[in-house]
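4.2 Preliminary Data

To establish feasibility before requesting continued support, the project team ran the inverse folding procedure on a target of 144 residues. The structure was first converted into the token representation described in Section 3, and no sequence information of any kind was made available to the design step. The complete token record follows.
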């Protein structure tokens, strides 16, 4: 009988100290889990930027280039993709068929009609893998 009581007391003490240690471990695990979610998300879902365009910014292009292209530094999501080309007078000269390259998820192109000499502005927009919209514009010129 006294033996049993002693065993019982030991078990309760072990239970209490084990509970406190387990609680500390849970809190530590939670903190680490939260930190890793933030750091891993930053690495896995990078913010895409434009690294190259064709024609180049402020570059010259032939009237028969046929298409205008943008390359991002990372793959972009297949939603909200846009690439439009507008003449100096505001006329849209692209074929409204902007699409992500099926072989390269970081490459977008749009067909353009034959371009008369003049200045043009290309506007791009894409949904970055991190969920942010990336957009901007560049100019190029078709010489006579
Ligand atoms: Cu971003």
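Position-by-position output of the design step:
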């Amino acid at each position: 009988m006294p033996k049993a009581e002693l065993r019982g007391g030991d078990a309760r003490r072990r239970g209490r100290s084990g509970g406190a240690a387990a609680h500390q471990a849970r809190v530590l695990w939670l903190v680490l889990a939260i930190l890793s979610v933030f750091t891993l998300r930053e690495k896995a879902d990078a913010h895409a930027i434009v690294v190259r365009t064709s024609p180049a910014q402020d570059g010259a292009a032939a009237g028969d280039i046929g298409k205008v292209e943008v390359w991002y530094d990372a793959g972009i999501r297949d939603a909200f993709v846009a690439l439009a080309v507008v003449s100096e007078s505001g006329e849209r000269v692209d074929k409204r068929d902007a699409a992500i390259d099926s072989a390269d998820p970081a490459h977008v192109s749009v067909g353009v009609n034959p371009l008369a000499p003049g200045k043009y502005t290309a506007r791009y927009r894409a949904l970055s893998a991190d969920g942010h919209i990336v957009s901007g514009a560049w100019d190029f010129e078709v010489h006579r």
